[in-house]
Amino acid sequence: MNDLKALSELKQKRTEGVQTYLFQLMQNNRPAFPEDKYRYVASFATSDSLVKQVDMKINQGLIEFDSDQILDLPAGVYRLEIYEMINDAIHAIFPSDRDLKFNVLYNTLDLPTGKVSSLTLDEFKKQFTDLAKRISTGTFESPKFKAGEVTTVDPDQPASVEMVTADDGTVTINYHIPRGRDGDSWKPYIATDGHWHIKLLDKTTESEEN
Fold this sequence. Notes:
Number of helices: 2
Shape: elongated
Helix content: 10-25%
Largest sheet: 6 strands, mixed
């Protein structure tokens, strides 16, 4: 059974090319050593398509690639496998029975240009109530809203909403929701009553999404 031990955290900011990612090949729970007769390729994929492949180097019994080789990867979570190649054919795949998760994080250049404001959930509710009154009376043109991201923060941090206003008037709404102290995650949603609520994510569903 082939396995793969990541010796570096599989995470980087998008477009940041200053890190090296090291891996130890494993076979039957023992370290295996790369051989010069093989070519090693890191393969990045989403849940439904191959995105990118990069050649790796052998370094003192380990294999590695550099973050500057994947600067063009969009932010997101990727499935990572490493192929041991010979004559352009796959000789072995590491790991055999799973894949690793590689996380490319957004950087501030990915945010829409314009005004950014962070609000507590109570402030967010009040702003929307005031906005609805102004729209209903015809004193304010209705803005365009765009769903953003939901990210988790530490349990002792408050829930907040980030509103990013672009130059064209589009408002992107991002949510920052604290994790439960037992590691659970929470997510905002609009119920049938038309109001915002926060619910505990189903652990099974969350793990399937990841």
